[in-house]
Amino acid sequence: MTLSQFEAERFRYYVLAAQRLGSRQLNEYMKMIDLTPSQSEVIQVLKQWQPISLKDLGSLLVCEMGSPSRLVERLVKEGLIDKVVDPNDARYVLLQLTSLGLERSEQIRYFEEKIHNDLEKLFTDEELSLVSTTLEKLLSHFPVAEALQKRNLMTNDIK
């Protein structure tokens, strides 16, 4: 195995391990408020972009590629999301958080801050920026970059 193959494999497994670690941590926090990480992302995106169509919501999500209709329907059933008539076209509905959804959003934010504080204990802003820039370079070649860019999380143009 050449050094570059070794480094590529090491990078791939480090990304996988970091993603799994982060997912486990987020899962544990979200269990406390009866949500999945995917549901929490939907709620946080809605908090920022509501009211929004299902299609537009789907274009902003990282957790779910394609239509998040089943995910949204579950949150509607749980009373976290309302479907409202689009004021510009009564044939369409828009999604927005209910008061319970807004309450959950604050709880999610609390847990997100705990995760951010944990990262702050381990890394400087410069170190996190370096890792983020490296991952952005990788992700910019894949469709998920569009959602990240729409959410203003990408610093560079998608190439």
Short description:
It is built from 7 helices and 2 strands, in the order ααααββααα. It has 159 residues and is mainly alpha-helical.
Explain what you see.
This protein has helices spanning 3-31, 37-49, 54-60, 69-77, 99-122, 125-139, 144-150, and strands spanning 81-85, 93-97. By secondary structure, it is mainly alpha-helical. Strands 1-2 form a two-stranded antiparallel ribbon. The model has no long low-confidence stretch (mean pLDDT 92).
Number of helices: 7
Rg: 18 Å
Number of strands: 2
Share of residues in helices: 55-70%
The percent range for strand residues is 5-15%
Structural class: mainly alpha
**Major sheet attributes:** 2 strands, antiparallel
What distance separates the N and C termini? 30 Å
Layout of helices and strands, plus pairs?
Layout: H1 3-31, H2 37-49, H3 54-60, H4 69-77, E1 81-85, E2 93-97, H5 99-122, H6 125-139, H7 144-150
Antiparallel strand pairs: 1-2
